[in-house]
Amino acid sequence: MDPSNLSHFFMAWLDPSLLGLTALGTLGGVYVGAIPGLSVTMAVSILISFTFSWEVNNALALMVGVFCGGVYGGSRSAILLNIPGAPAAIATSFDGYPLAERGEAGAAIGVSTLISLVGGMIGVLVLAVAAPLVSEFALQFAPRDYLLLAAMGLLLVGGLSGDSMAKGIFAGALGVTLGMVGMDPMTAEGRFTFGTVALLGGIHYVIAMIGLFGISESLYQLHMLNLKPVKQNVDKIIPSWSVILKYLPLSIRTSFIGVIIGALPGTGGDIAALMAYDHAKRTVKKPSRPFGKGAYEGLIAPESANNAAIGGAYIPMLTLGIPGDAVTAVMIGALYIHGLKPGPMLMLETPHLFWFTVGNLCLSNIFMVIFGLTGIRIFAKMVELPRGILIPVITVLSVVGTYTIQNSIIDVYWMLGFGLAGYFLKMFGFQVAPIILGIILGPLMDMSYRRTVMSCGDNMDEFFLSFFINPLTCVLTLSVFFMIFSQTPLWTALKARFRKPGPPETGTNP
Questions:
Q1: DSSP character at residue 180
Q2: How many of the other CB atoms lie within 10 Å of CB of 292?
Q3: DSSP state, residue 402
């Protein structure tokens, strides 16, 4: 690294004002991310209005801290209350909340915090070393590739649908249908609005997430009011080095998954975490517990991936001027406000800004660990509250969080409706996570499919052949076919034939 670049890398570390702003942003991001409904995108958007008159370094230091802290903070409410504070923490709740139900909330948060550091640092390392290469790879994705990527995300409901694949597919399809509600992005005509103006804006996935996870969980917990709260073990929060080394190979693999998915424009930590969780389920032969019942591998994989996706999202933003996710889309606006032009010329005209951002991301990850490991005992007490107190608290947080999204009481009604629907779905054995994923991935599938069809005209033969001509598309197509085949009884029979008998699974702590 050039000495001048090195000085810009450590600028935020050595300047007291930049150091303080990064710490303040990270601390605020952790708690913004932990509150359902308060998204990182919203927080960064609000900061732009306050920081447009600041120096660019001060503004970026604060926003980078909020970004890193917010992605991590979503895991806290996901682990303790089964309410993901952010979409990127949906996969964290699959095994994080069962760990809290076992009284291991302290260990779960401790492990997830340090693993988040691993993922975040790997994301920053790839950003610093391979930004041009990864961004060039991301540019090779055509609309048909995004269609296949979204289809892969929906097919992952097979691993999230409990005992019934059919119920998982139904939930995912329901989510896609809900994601189509609103104005058609290509014709501006209403779809599934039934003539209601309130539906033209579509259904916000965060509103659905709060209702399906928060309110439905509160209603479900009413059946267990007489059960005593589980005493949380918070005596040992920081895991030993042996535990970190044990899970390090998995976290490194899922971190690279997070970087690659994060570098794809329009994706983000939520899709990265989901694919990392599926990767862990497919590759970990002997998990600490069965996945979905408190496996630490199921906690580590999404947490390393969604934090690594932060560095990945910065790659197309800084090198191409294309946002990797919603937060970097807002940050591009902030750079333009400060007179900068994100894209290829940014690296040539203002290379110091690139290295300042890399150093600031590293510093934010360090503050994330410091603030993440503090206050765990207080947070863990939330789970030990009697259900008669905890359920009203969750309900109030859900209502307030929903209202603050768009300051609309209509959103609160939608959220309560989703909560009631989620309650009945849970009672009949349906998982609600595939619905959220469907709402998020549905618009991406819709746009990608229609752009692919438009590029082929009326020639359907060319449409189908296009999925096998390009090497990248061919690999993704074969991956989709394999994922479908892996959910069939024939694949289960083949695995049973060639699998060697091993010792039974045990339920051990990390």
A1: T
A2: 15
A3: H
Determine the Cα–Cα distance for residues 329 and 313; give it in Å rounded to an integer. 10
Q: How confident is the model at residue 23 (pLDDT cuts 50, 70, 90)?
A: very high
pLDDT tens for 135-150 read: 566 667 778 888 887 7
pLDDT mean over 301-323: 82
Question: Beta-carbon neighbour count of residue 202 at 10 Å?
Answer: 18
8 Å CB contact between 43 and 68: no
Sequence ranges of the domains in the chain: 15-456, 457-495
Predicted confidence (pLDDT) at residue 121 exceeds the cutoff of 90: yes
Q: How confident is the model at residue 227 (pLDDT cuts 50, 70, 90)?
A: low
- Amino acid identity of residue 405, one-letter, is I
Instruction: Give, in order, the Cα–Cα distances in Å from 175 to each of 74, 283, 337, 419.
Output: 22, 28, 36, 14
The strand ranges marked E within 157-276 are 182-183, 190-191
Answer positive or negative: Cα dihedral of 275, 278, 282, 288.
Answer: positive
Q: Measuring CA to CA, how many Å separate 201 from each of 39, 40, 399, 416?
A: 18, 21, 20, 18
Distance CA 16, CA 22 (A): 10
Contacts of 356 (CB under 8 A, 6+ apart): 8, 9, 11, 12, 57, 60
